[in-house]
Amino acid sequence: GAVVSQHPSWVICKSGTSVKIECRSLDFQATTMFWYRQFPKQSLMLMATSNEGSKATYEQGVEKDKFLINHASLTLSTLTVTSAHPEDSSFYICSAGLPFGEDRVLYEQYFGPGTRLTVT
Amino acid sequence: KQEVTQIPAALSVPEGENLVLNCSFTDSAIYNLQWFRQDPGKGLTSLLLIQSSQREQTSGRLNASLDKSSGRSTLYIAASQPGDSATYLCAAFDYKLSFGAGTTVTVRA
User: Fold this and answer.
1) Pick from A100, A84, A104: which is nearest to A92 by CA?
2) What is the pLDDT of residues A28-37, one digit of tens each?
3) Cross-chain CB nearest to A113 (options B43, B49, B99)
4) pLDDT grade, residue A77 (50/70/90)?
5) Which end of chain B is flanked by fewer CB atoms within 10 Å, N or C?
């Protein structure tokens, strides 16, 4: 159980274009999903928290107008990299959260397989 | 801000040797700590999750310990195999996951 998929697994786009990455929870409903970015040999960095039916919460230093997040349903969140540039080339990983704890604000996260973005 | 450090950054051992991977975190007010495996170009596979109230968790050849007061966790892999070659990440959870940069393990046949 708790399977998360991402599509596409890799994408190459030209500088200035936009690319959309999908994150789906296949066997559970996730009111909250998370988007991470990982540069080579570096740690995963949380970019934003996506909540179904509301605006995403972005981490400090992440441009919300460049990385558009939409969480339109309980099983799908999308990340759109707008006007992509070579420095946006990275490995993007999403996770879907299952809440635990009495106040249900804590999440156990299940990770997708990642999307490799290369901007030429 | 939570900072997670993993030492060493890379490790190469002959097959059969036991592995010891270290993780330290700066803020001990965590709910849990999780160890992941990442193969090159792939996503994360969760290995072990230790709740803050626990001292250790075991799964097969893997054992992870947690010492919240000192801000440390250790992952032990017994009798390493070439298939254990991967990058191992630890992550501390305090409302959000903070990851270390990982330890890249190579097990030589």
Assistant:
1) A84
2) 888 899 999 9
3) B43
4) very high
5) N
